[in-house]
## 1
Amino acid sequence: MVRASTQQRSWTRWIEPGLVVITVAALLLGVFTWAVGARDLADGFWIAATVVAIVPAVWWMIATLVRGRAGVDLIAVLSLAGTLLVHEYLAGALIAVMLATGRALDAAAQRRASRDLRSLLEHAPRSARRRVGAEVSVVALDEVAVDDVLVVAPGEVVPVDGRILNSVAVLDESVLTGEPLQVERGIGEPVRSGVVNSGAAFEIRASATAAGSTYAGIVRLAQQAGAQNAPVVRLADRFATWFLPLTLLVAAAAWLATGSLVRAVAVLVVATPCPLLLAAPVAIVSGLSRAARQGVVIRSGGALENLGHATTLVMDKTGTLTAGRPVVIEVIAAPGQDGAEALRLAASVDQLSPHVLAEAIVTEALTRGSSLVLPTDVVEQPGRGVTGTVASHRVEVGKLPAARTESPWARTVVNRASLDSAAIAWIAVDDALAAAVLLRDPLRRHAPRTVRRLRQAGLNRLVMLTGDRLEPAREVATVLGLDQVYAGQSPADKVAAVRDEREHAVTVMVGDGVNDAPALAAATVGVAMGARGSSASSEAADIVLTTDRLDRLADAMDTARWSRRIAVQSAVAGMALSLAAMIVAALGWLPPAAGALLQEGIDIAVILNALRAVRGNPALRVEVSADTDALLHRFADEHDTLRDPLVMLRTAADRLAEHADITALDAVDSAYQFLVGELLPHEQAEEAQLYPALARPLGSTEATATMSRTHAEIQRLTTRIGTHLHLAHTMGHFTPEQTDDLLACLYGLHALLQLHFLQEEENYFTLADDDRRPARAAPGAQ
């Protein structure tokens, strides 16, 4: 039965293209035979084209009427039948071609990709390791019963819901929650099916069967949500609700007033809704083409139409608004230790660890140009960290016992991590704390600008759903100015929230994980971050962003609204011209064949106008020259290089706050040398080269005026710090009178630079064609 259904769908998809080929061939053969004098044969070809078109047109008309709507197909059937009745066969063939072409374009725009969520099913486990006494055997998943003891080996998917029996489990729950950081579950804690064992083997006692477990529920939610989506009403049919009765009224009036059936048919011919049949599909297909070039795959014209008048946007956090993977935001050296060397040693050990934080630490060390070596005697304890020997030093990276992190410095690190919503990886070298690495999932560089653009596009309610904790979720919502945030959301919670939003407005849902697939299917329009997101979310979505850039969603929104505007504009203009032609035909001044040719001219005009959707809205286009693009990339790279040394300002201020001694003097001096030697030349180059280049794409020099004022403030504070240093070097130390002002300068400049970097990256660097590497987050960026 399934195979027969699949074969039927495969066969029916060729009806519209086949109809185009047949009608066009018949029309052209008729023209050729008419040109050589075979008039009867020409009429035969044109009659054949008309009959071939009228059969499916009747079927489409009946299908529309069954759904309770009188669409454009009814006018098409009447005009086709009328041309046969009054022997205007050329007009019938022309209408047949236009009808077939319009339906083919409409079908291409509306056809949806399969939503069978194959990857959801592929990820689901098929078997489980059941332990009975000392014997472990592999059994089919359906054989698992409640209270069975199951063994979950390293790297395996937890088969059913249960509770941990024998040891701490290290789990990758991203498939359910979307969060990239691994979590620990202790003995007695619940564990859900679908999560991956990232540590050593552990045992669970099953608390549900496979059918009643979490992962099976996700699959059912996605399938049910997809099945509940209402069919899309064609734009053409919406216009036809008033155009159809008007057409019939004019045709009937012409017939009753003159008694001429030819005039009535002529009215129907020029009223043949080719502007409706063509305008919307051509504009929509043009929009689909433009979106595809921008890295946005829109699977149906209905999705593009709905996106064009959406007012509510629901977004997942991890992988959508944030990068979806942890990165190092700061390396804090212990007193008397070298942070760069500690990071190098830690990264050398972490090279052999599969942990997600280890990958981030190695990436950071390589970015900084550290030379890593191969460690020996590497031992990894799941949930604790990794230990190894590097150049005769015993290095530990990860979590350390609480007794080893009780120093005042360590407590300061813990407080800072808490304020920044960051994870901590401690580094110990030869049993002594050497440094702490702060990591977190950073906000996407394009996210703030994209949110602003989406609001400008007409979205008036922005909601974030996340499986993460409330604190980091609230921080992201505050930075982006979102209207509502829901934290700690399960897949079922997300579906319920999306359905609730959909009850009140046309709702778009954006996500990237398997856990988002049901919510994507439940939304009016589901948008998947497909570049790094799961294939399950891509299967469930109407729109897939093929590049790892959130701003493409704003591009898709702009394209959708522009395409819909062009479609409506073309349809209205075409109907107005058809209405004028109907009046002329009703007066007897336009016979059916001439009316068909006039209708062809109207159709061509409508098509040409609809094709404007390919170019996009010129008012929203920001043109960046190749030279300006190169400058944007250059200064973006310099930001990534300069961001890490910015911590020198905060470190110098901390040292000065503790003791205004020679150590503090050296720290402030190092920070000042960085400011005048590296940072100020960068800011001056931006002022002299980048900002003038941005004047044209941004519209005026006023767009960078506030950033120029910030440059002046950076220069002022740097000069003030230099003045304090000059006085301190003269006296050999800082005086108490200097300390308060210098602290204000250092802390203030650190905060100002962090904000300034983020503003430039969001407002200017996002104009570049791509990001050659993901932006590393600064404190406060999440």
## 2
Amino acid sequence: MTVSQQIPVATLGVPRIGRRRELKFALESYWSGKSCGAELLTMAKALRAASWEEQHDRGVSKIPSNDFSLYDHVLDTAAMVGAVPSRYAWNGGEVPLDTYFAMARGGQAQTEHCGCARHQHADGHSLTAMEMTKWFDTNYHYIVPELEDNQTFTLSSTKPIDHFLEAKALGIHTRPVILGPVTFLKLAKSRAEGFNTIALLPRLLPVYEELLRTLKLAGADWLQIDEPALVLDLNPNERAAFEFAYGQLSTVAPELKIMLATYFGPLGDNLETAISLPIAGLHLDLVRAPEQLETVGRLAPKDLVLSLGLIDGRNVWRANLTAILDRIKPVVAGWPLARVEIAPSCSMLHVPIDLRMETALDADLRSWLAFAAQKTDELVILARALSQGRGAVADELKASADAAAARATSSKIHDPLVEGRTAGINGAMKQRTSAFAERSRVQARALGLPRFPTTTIGSFPQTAEVRKARAAHGRGQLSYVDYETFLKKETEAAIRWQEEIGLDVLVHGEFERNDMVQYFAEQLSGFAFTEHAWVQSYGSRYVRPPIIFGDVSRPNPMTVRWWEFAQSLTQKPVKGMLTGPVTILNWSFVRDDLSRAEVCRQIALAIRDEVTDLEKSGAKMIQIDEAAFREGLPLRKCGRQFYLDWAVECFRLASTGVQDATQIHTHMCYSEFNEIIGVIAELDADVISIETSRSAMELLDAFTSSKYPNEIGPGVYDIHSPRVPEVAEISALLSLARERLSDAQLWVNPDCGLKTRNWEEVRPSLVNMVTAARALRERMQA
């Protein structure tokens, strides 16, 4: 095969954030009024150019454009098709930047800075943000499109075309990426009861058709359309929607070839639909579902280009390239190589950018890892091996196989004591002594809380001063003693302020913690940490997931000392604050040589040790956050029960080693609970707090219909929006909650931790929350 016949390499999508988190800092500068929109857009353009050029230099031949977003690609699509809710007072045309951000984050009254007018509602009132939830089973959050039953659509953003032309001006021919129309509609929601958003497809398609025609005129020859909904359980109407949509789109610009991208699982019973569509190419996730390659290879039309998702786009482990080649060889051997592309399993949005930045990692561990840049190199090696023969990349294949062998036999991975302890788990370790009805009576007597008790989820603002002190301590510029003194001062101030405003149950504020998972992982064996391996969670919120490389245990208590200090400052109860085993698992990069269930059991035993130590120290309430519990739920119903069984087991294993008088809380955010409400009851937490503010308490309907028996704190304050909710707004949400819950069940709290907010927002918001709860108590007593 000649060089011109080299199998193409596609990346599908790459991280947007910049090697040094340039996008985060530019966004936050703009939001704070320190810079203008022009400066933000100039920086974003530079990030895109650097990304395209790097991919080109590494040998990628199908370079994506329009995978970049200032906030979220689903929000980009809503803006592109003119799906802007009426409260944002959009009058058509290009969606303004501040309208876009108001949809994502909400907003307050109008301000002006640097000559840039800020967006406001027509009547000057503050704006609520659109709902946010998890992107399939990842930790990436997307903005949920809001559609009316009489929704109209119009092409209101030329971003896909602009980015294609931007790359073209640099001499780089890209393959634009857009979110497919069926997945967009399936992810959307409507306020109209019983309305199926898929019914809007005939109205939406003309906008897509206009976009395809314009892209073709701009010079595009291929278009990647992402339709991950094809890996879900679909009904006949939804399958028919795919047939209708692509039947229409295929006739608009026939010369513009469509690569239909599916990922996060197998096509399964949607395979026949997918391969029957009039498309030029089909991308398959062969990491999550390697078994589908043989079936697709046998059934797909021979003129269909198969994009083989061979490298994991969601985890950080280096691939065994020889093993991959051996696995796909029988299928690829019967397929024209001109009809094959090599790609990651999905967009590499979900992995860090470049391993070369991690100079402090253990050398052995580093040799086992691959981030986006290294995964791109792996794709190129696989393409060369298939195009030119394995001899052309013999050294690279040997290095890959050697790394895999070294990892499998390393003594750093296995701990016989941990393995023995998990083998000894029994049923008694997963049950509370008494049922909730009895425990709640014991807890009510012990705690003496008022009706509608107020609390927060755990963290308080990580101010610039807090971050500066942590960084100075990390660099050795602030001594251990001085850092401890600083943290104690911040903690005491938080306790005193909570007492002052009248919160009923206090938290210590978590000023000593960097991240709700990383803080614990740093104190557990079997975890490794990075310095620059950031991935996007939502907007400008990035995280550095720990890497679970070996068996997990807890060498020493992790939170007891800080809880004891905080509790010594007040007579009110202070919650012990822990992250649950399922969330630690789901928000980490997990070893792939052991089942996730077994890894989670190891973490659960470590958290159990911490829970019992907190109780021995006097903690009356212990919150075990499981924000990511639903995140790990398999996308297909057939695989869910197994996951739910071991996830519940692990939470109970972590939480049930306490006495009846100890109240166990948990917190879950941005989850759809309808499908797992029975499982949430099986967790048997005494109190669960959940996000409900953006959904106007709709998420409580699942708890109501199932007659959920335990206590619930529905979020009445949206902490992901930079606005202060008024007392009347919180009171209205409480009224909606009371329509769904009994008064004896109801707690009052924000919908999530307050780490990412600033005190100027937090103080008045929590004062308003306490005021609303007190007013409700007074009305009840009148």
